[in-house]
Amino acid sequence: MYCVIGCLWGTIVGVLPGLGPLAGLTLLLPITYYLEPTAAIVMLAGIFYGAMYGGSTTSILVRIPGEAASIMTAIDGHEMARKGRAGPALVVAAIGSFIGGTVSVVGLMLFAPPLAQLMLQIGPAAEFGLMLLALVVLCFASGGPALKTFAMVVAGLLVATVGVDMITAHPRFTFGSLHLVNGISFVAMALGMFGVSEILINLEDIAKVKVIKPTLRSLMPRRQDLKDSAPAIGRGTVIGFSFGFIPGISHVISTFVSYAVERKLSRQPETFGTGRIEAVAGPETANNATTGSAMIPLLVLGIPAIPATAILLAALQIHGVQPGPQMLTEHPQMFWGLIASMYIGNLVLLFFNLPLVGLFVNLLRIPYAYLAPSILLVSIIGIYSVSGNALDILIMALSGVVGYVLRKAKFDPAPLLLAVVLGDRLEVSLRRALLISQGDWWALLQGAMSKIFLGAVLLLVLLQSAAWLLGFRRKP
Amino acid sequence: MTSLRRLEIGVGVALLLLGVFAAWEGARMPQGTAGLPGPGVMPVALGVVLALCSVALMTISARARVAGEPVAIGHRRITAAVLALFAAGLLWESAGFLVTSTLFLFVLLWILSTLGWWRSLVAAMLGALAARFVFQNVLNVVLPALPFAY
Lengths: 476, 150
Hints:
The complex is a heterodimer of chains A (476) and B (150). Chain A has 476 residues and is an all-alpha fold. Chain A has helices at 2-15, 21-28, 37-62, 71-82, 86-119, 124-141, 146-160, 186-203, 223-243, 250-265, 278-293, 295-301, 307-318, 327-330, 332-353, 357-363, 368-387, 391-408, 413-436, 448-469, and strands at 163-164, 171-172.
C-alpha cells in the first residue's frame, strides 16, 4: 500500500517540471517521519523510482528533463512526441524502466547478502580505506570539473565535523548552541540544497509549458518499435546495473554511456536526435537499472552511491536504522520489505502509470506561481516536523541559497552532500583504528581488505594523475 | 546579471573564508599527538586544503581568457522567496503556524501570480487552513499554535 502511494506520489513529483527524484525525496522525507520505519522506507523507495519514471514523461512530452538522468531521453523522446509518436516512446520507456528496474532488484537480492557477510568481518582500518575509496571515486567519477568537485567534497567533509567529536566528546563549531551538538541537520541541508534551490532556479522562468498530450489509443507501440528497442533495453540494463555501484552521478553517466553505445552500434547513427526509439529505450532502461544496484552500497556498506540514496540513508537514520552489513541481520524485515517493494513498485509503475498518463500530463498545466509557494510551505512544515526546531527552517533556507548560488556557478552540490554523509565515518574509523593500534599508522595497512581498498585508492590517484599529466585534463 | 567567471571567483572567496575560519577555529581545539590525532586535526587539515583549493579555483577563473557565459542571479521572484523563507523561519514559533503560513503564502502568491492582493490573501488563508488540517489533523504533525492560544 505504502509502495503504491510512494510510486504514484513519486511519479507526480517526477512529472512536475524541475522537480526530480532528489527534490521529490527531500521534500517528502520529513512527512514519512510519522510512519512506521519499514512503511516509511518502502514509501520513500517508491517515491525514488516513481520519480525516476515520472521524469521520462516530462522529458518526452515537454522536453523538460526532471533531472540530469532524463536528458538523453528528452532528446529523441520529444522528437518522437513531436512526430505524433509520444505513445510508443512512453510505452517503451515504461517497459525499459520495468525490465531494468526488475533485473537490478534481482541483482540486489543476489549480491547484497554475501557482500554483507563479507563486510561484517572488516574492522575500523578497512572501513577507513573503504570510506576513502568512496570519496576518491566520488571526486573522479563526478561529471563536473575535477577541482570544483574536490572543493565540494572537502567543504562537505568540513560540514561533517560540526557537532560533538565522536571520540573525545569535544564540541566543534557549535558556538554554544545545543541544537548544533549533533551536527547540522542533514535533512534540512538536503532539503535546502536540492529541494529549495531547485524551486528558486525554476522561479527564474515560470512561463507556461507547452504539453503534447497523447491519447490512450496512441500508446500502443508497433511490433517494429518493440523489435528495435529490445536489444537497447538489454544493453541498458547491463550498463545501468554496472554503473550503479560507482559513487557520484552514476545514474546520469549510465544514461550518457547507454546513448553513446546505441549510437555507436546503430546502422544510422546520423539519425540519432531525430526520434529514434533505441535512444529512448537504452538510456531510460539504464537510468532505472541503477536504482537497484545503487542500493547495494547503501544497504550493505552504508555508503550512498548517488545523491538520492543519501536521502534514503538519512531516512533510515531518522528511523533509528544504520545501513551497513548489520542491517540484514538486525532489520531483516526492513531489508526484505524494501526488496519486495521494489518488485511491486516496478509492476505498479508499468501497469498504473500508462493509463494515468493523461492525468499526469494535466499536472503540468498547474501554474508554477501556485505550485512553488505550496511546495515551499510543505518543505517548511516537513522540516519542522522532523526536529520541532525552527532553526532547521533557517538552515534549510540558507542551504537553499547556497545550493542556488553553487548551481549558478556550475558547482555540483551533490558531492558536498555525499561527503557530509561519509565524513563522520571517515574520521571516526581512522581515529578508532589508530586508538586500537595505539597510534601505529601502519595498522591502516594490516588486513587484506585494508590493502585492497587503499591499493585501489592509490591506483585511482595514480591513473588520474597520469591522465592529467598526459593532457587529458578537464576544464576546471 | 553577472558573468560565470565573477560568480566562480565569488564562490572561491566564500570557500576561502570558510577554509581559513575552519583552520583558525580548529587550531584552538585539542590537537592530540601524531599517533592519536585530537578533534582539532581534521578541521585544520580540511580548512587548509579547502583554502588552497579555493585559491587554485580563483586563479584559474581569473586567468580564463573569456569571462564565461552571462549568469542571471537573484531575480525579484527569487529574492522574495528567499526573504519569505527566512521570515517564516524567524516567525514560525513566535507568531504560530496559521499567521506565519498565511503571510508566507500571501507574499509569494501576490508576487508570483496574477491574482492581485485580495485574492492572494483569500487563497493564502484557505491554503494555510487546508495545510493545518492535513498536517495537524490527518498526519498528526505538531505545529506551533497561535501566540495567544495557551
